[in-house]
Design brief:
397 residues; mainly beta; 16-stranded parallel beta barrel; 40 strands; globular
Length: 397
């Protein structure tokens, strides 16, 4: 190991502990990083390794150590306090509790810590580079549009800070796409909770993909004029708990983009976590995508009472099995027949509707249809059931 790399890492750590404009640092290895609070840093080095906090790194494998610039926004009642911490390229305007942040920095990754409570406030972010948002006890009701509007087409990391409760509510009759909107693709983690109510269109919407990581906490939707969760490109769930009620549209929708060559375009994946959903609207879907639908783990409970509605709707193929997590699906379809006012066509309520092929390799799937107008599982293509699958449902294909 060359001595200059050992020395440079040590000097950078010394500089980090005395830096006033940052609260965190990142240790990078092979494109991945560990985020460490500066207040928690203690380090030692010897030979070919360096210990930072409670983790030991092989110096040859450390690509770099970077500082994280942190901007804080705290809103109380109708007053906003913003600390930019001398972050280059970042400016803001505030009108009462309504804050607009503009970031022209295209090289440095910023982190925004959002907190506070107000019944007349919102936060809008305009940027061109990937960034991170920490919801640290943020409870906003907007009177002007979206409560949180992230206008950045890059990757957005959203952290629900451990131990916090957060809520976002938009106004009715606005032009916003959602109470919580992200123009880019968003990856969610952190064990805090988030409650969202959408009074104009969706509750939560991303223009590109939406990923819920394994350590995601509880996300609740209490109202949506359209979809509870609307993801452009694809939806991917590894963990967390979704409690979705009060939506007039679909529960979870993964929509195909205008570019059919986009990665995983229109697909939906559930690999773990829990989904609890009440589908009360007419002719809507609990879980819906524009491509193939894959469930390899998790607990899904859907109560479908809306006329002509579906618990799960797959326009192409659907695969159910068990990977690293057990798969348990329970759907109760009790809605009546719905007559489409435009086509005069009668539409039945169904637990699962698959236009392509349905394959259930393993897992437990239970579908009840408890009204005269409902059906259990309807498959237009082929149906394949594995030896390890437990299926209780009336099936028509």
């Amino acid at each position: 190991m060359k001595r200059h790399k050992v020395l440079s890492l040590g000097l950078l750590l010394l500089a980090a502990t005395s830096a006033s404009a940052q609260r965190y640092m990142r240790v990078w290895q092979n494109g991945e990083s560990d985020r460490i609070a500066l207040s928690d840093i203690n380090y030692s080095q010897g030979g070919s390794v360096i210990t930072i906090g409670d983790k030991t790194y092989t110096i040859a494998e450390v690509d770099s150590i970077t500082m994280v610039r942190t901007i804080t926004v705290h809103i109380k009642d109708n007053q906003a306090t913003v600390n930019l911490n001398n972050a280059p390229g970042v400016t803001y305007t505030a009108e009462g509790g309504h804050v607009v942040i503009n970031n022209t920095n295209e090289k440095e990754e910023m982190e925004f810590v959002l907190s506070g409570t107000s019944n007349d406030a919102s936060i809008t972010y305009n940027g061109v580079y990937k960034c991170k948002f920490h919801l640290d006890g943020l409870n906003l009701t907007s009177t002007k549009g979206a409560a949180l509007d992230i206008q950045c087409g890059k990757r957005i990391d959203l952290f629900l800070v451990d131990g916090t409760t957060n809520s976002l509510t938009d106004c009715a009759g606005g032009l916003q796409k959602a109470a919580f909107y992200c123009k880019g693709h968003m990856e969610v983690e952190g064990s805090g909770s988030l409650t969202v109510a959408g009074h104009t269109r969706h509750a939560i919407s991303t223009n590109e993909y939406l990923i819920l990581k394994e350590n995601t906490g509880n996300i609740t939707v209490t109202n949506a004029v359209s979809d509870a969760i609307h993801a452009g490109q694809y939806f991917w769930m590894d963990g967390g708990t979704l409690d979705l009620t009060g939506m007039a549209g679909d529960g979870i929708q993964a929509e195909v983009t205008n570019d059919p060559t986009e990665e995983l375009n229109g697909l939906l994946f559930i690999n773990g976590g829990s989904i609890n959903m009440k589908v009360t609207g007419n002719d809507v879907k609990g879980i819906k995508c524009d491509g193939d639908l894959t469930i390899t783990g998790g607990n899904i409970n859907i109560d479908v009472t809306g006329g002509g509605s579906k618990g799960i709707s797959a326009p192409m193929n659907m695969l159910i099995n068990e990977d690293s997590n057990p798969t348990n699906i329970m759907i109760n379809a009790s809605g009546k027949i719905y007559t489409d006012p435009e086509t005069d066509e009668d539409v039945r309520c169904m637990g699962i509707n698959v236009k392509g092929n349905l394959t259930i390799e393993s897992g437990t799937v239970t579908v009840y249809n408890t009204s005269a107008g409902s059906r259990g599982i309807k498959i237009d293509g082929t149906y394949t059931k594995g030896a390890n699958a437990k299926v209780t449902a009336s099936i028509k294909n």
